[in-house]
Amino acid sequence: MNEVRLGVIESRFADIVWEKAPLTTAELIRLCEAEFDWKRTTTYTVLKRLSERGIFKNDNGTVTVLISKDEFYSMQSEKVVKESFGGSLPAFIAAFTSRQNLSDDEIAEIRAIIENMKRS
Asked: Under CATH, what is the fold of the domain 8-69?
């Protein structure tokens, strides 16, 4: 995948596809017209752009997902950690928590994730 980031509108568009896929391009055009007041050509342009990035596929009028929403945001998060924190997850967590306290539930959830990683 060339470009991992999505703009605000691309993100909202992607959410529609992730939620409804597989769907026909006709359905997607109707959804985008209702949500964004787009013309058919705008929907096709954005779909083509995200398909070129390897996120979705338009195959004979059926739009399918190539990369799930969870996988996409996981890849985006990895890129942020790599580019901004030299790949150091502890540095990212330290920066994230320096201005925002974690709740006891969040700490417990993070500990559970780490424990599950140790068992894998």
From this structure: Arc Repressor Mutant, subunit A (1.10.10)
The 10 Å CB-count burial string (b at 16+, else e) for 38-52 is beeebbbebbebbbe
> Given a cut of 80, is residue 17 above it in pLDDT?
yes
Tell me the per-residue pLDDT of 73-111, one tens digit each, with 9 for 90 and over: 999 999 999 999 999 999 999 998 998 889 999 999 999
pTM recorded for the entire structure: 0.80
Domain ranges of the chain: 8-69, 88-120
Q: Helix, strand, or coil here: 24?
A: strand
Q: Is the dihedral of CA 56, 57, 58, 64 positive or negative?
A: negative
CB-side exposure of 48: number of CA atoms within 13 Å? 6
